[in-house]
Give the backbone structure.
Amino acid sequence: MRKILAPSAIAVTAALVLAGCAAGGSGGKASTGSGTKAGVTLTFLTFETPNLTAKYWDDAIARASAKVPGVKIKKLVAPSADRVGYAKQLAASGQLPDIMIAVSPNGFAQAGQLAAWSEGQLTDFVSPHANPVGGKVYQLPYNTQPTPFVYYNKADFAAAGITAEPKTYQDLLDDSAKLKAKGITPFVVGGGGKDTWADMYPLIGAVATDTYKQTPGWLAQKAAGTAKFTDPAFTKAAAKIADLAKAGYIDAAGLSRSYADDEQAFRDNKGAMYPMGSWFAASADAKAPSFGVGVFAWPSDDGTLAVPAYTGGGMSVSSKAADVPLAQKWALAFMLDKTSLDNSVKTDGSIIALKDYTPPAGMGPVYTETVNLYQAAVKANGIVNAFSIETGDGSMPAGLADKAAAGVADLINGKKSASGFGSFLDAEWTKANQ
Amino acid sequence: MSTTLAPPPRGETTQRPGGAPSRRRSTRLPKALHFLTFGAPGLAVYLVFVLVPIAMAVGTSLTNRNPANPPTKWVGFLNYTRLFSDDDFLKSLQNTLVITVIVTVVANVGGLAIAMLLDRRGKLYNALRAVFFTPVILSSVVVSVIWQAILSDDGLLDSMLRSLGVKHPPGWLSNPDYALYSVAFIITWQMLGFCVVVYLAGLQGVPQELMEAAELDGAGPAARFTNVTWPMLAPALTINTVMLLITGFKAYDQVQVITNGGPGNGTTSTVAFDVVQTTFTGNHIGYGSAMAVVMLAIIAVVSTVVLRVLQRREITL
């Protein structure tokens, strides 16, 4: 019996691994939704977080469906924060959802799996041409997220004798030294478990001030082969992160913290500064920490504002949906619903990028301060791309953002120098395009 | 009493029990019918869920299939030649081997030691057997989440060490020098109960007469273990070793949940993890399939060789 069992176990084990790769033909199924006489059933891929709960999605779906008769929505929920990876797995087995939200169109659009939005459908959006792929927009650009701002513990700053927010990078270093002298870890970082990306924010800030501010299209130059990650324009930013870690301002042990633990560590006062996306503002207002929270932009050398931000995050529709025009109509109804937008602002700190939209009254102080800082950067022409978060033409190849996050962990751990990090990214970029 | 009934010569008339005499038809048709009735469903399942996916993966591995970069073209063995100069894949392979060796050796040794301690009668020992077996029935994801809560920087273990005065406790999951061993430890911990149960079954199958005979011949505990118990445990060793080898080679869940391949680039990445990342995150379905095929070959060869070697020393009484 054992003679049969063991080889069978080997074969089944291997087959399960192999089946994952071979799943799905190139053609795939036409649609996961279905059309009936009573209407069309469309699948909708969502994701749940502590802020965006099942009820939030169910209520929003019901409101949009009431506006577009003939559509029945079958909600799918991504099993983890990696909704792009989940969507790719579904696509590989011919089950790409008909409608998706907050899934980068990279890869799907190039493969012809998404339907493009027309100019007429984009008239309500502030940045209707954000993140184009081949000149066409595949994801509704409804939401702007400055990523990162630096949220800080006002009590820790006061305890260290810091009276003003840092304006220049030298100020930031001086303040970090004062905090450390008081026994306070200056920066909280994460990056543990499946949330490797959570270690990226200091680097995104530094690339904004040291690379993108000077050359806004730097990554497109890299894609075109006229720039390299080993160029001083990039390694200067990487060196700042390596130096912060080397000076003990970033605690490398934090790399074992998941995203949720990362936020909790800041709330538990395990560090004074928390570089994070603007969505933290809603969380800080909804469940205020025991200390006051302030916010400033990652400072540049000369004090000019350079705020990395990404506008996108909205709906995309499968080109194989049972009824593409109806699916797009429903997606727009969902996206433009004022109640849903208000809920998104309240629960996820969204900065809505729709013309004539006004946020709900009574938003908390951290959200208000965050929006004011963003508006100041807009006025100062200080908005730049958020490194590794960009999508569309000229952005990183698929999978490279994960490699960048892994490389940042090596920078923080001292396993890679700034130039070594640059060489690593150049090599991974080449590999990703093979 | 038993008798052996010789089959009647082909074509000879025979008497069916309780039935009228009939001319016996060729045995080929009933055999085929028998096979179709009982064997075909199993064969169909095996074909559809094992052999066809393997064939499809092998076929895909010979292409450059990438949904973000159509069209798919035939590239021959290019993916395979690329693999052996790919530092990330070689690192994953090395990590997989390290995990496999640790899991196979430590779980076998630990499992045998615990099984010998539990090879006694009584309610306490029954309860302890259940305790040791519990991790085996838990989902790997659940086990991973539990251990992440224990081993992370703000976790149970380091908090305890800090309370005992250790200022800078080790970063079990954040330090690249420890993370791989932490993952290997967690997989070992989960598999330990399986080994214990298999060895216990083996120990309980050791004939008492042999032990008594050895004792009468003057053999001490060590000699009895070496000359009687250990050889009699050969079948258990074979099962445990093959299952642990497979578990080590296919390690994925724990890496995905606890470290996501990090900290840093590929520190704890395994081949199975690399296959999924390459295929579904990087969109390189052809290249990922080549990795999976190489993994299949490695598992098949190593497991078959180990199986053959261990089976040779098995004792049949």
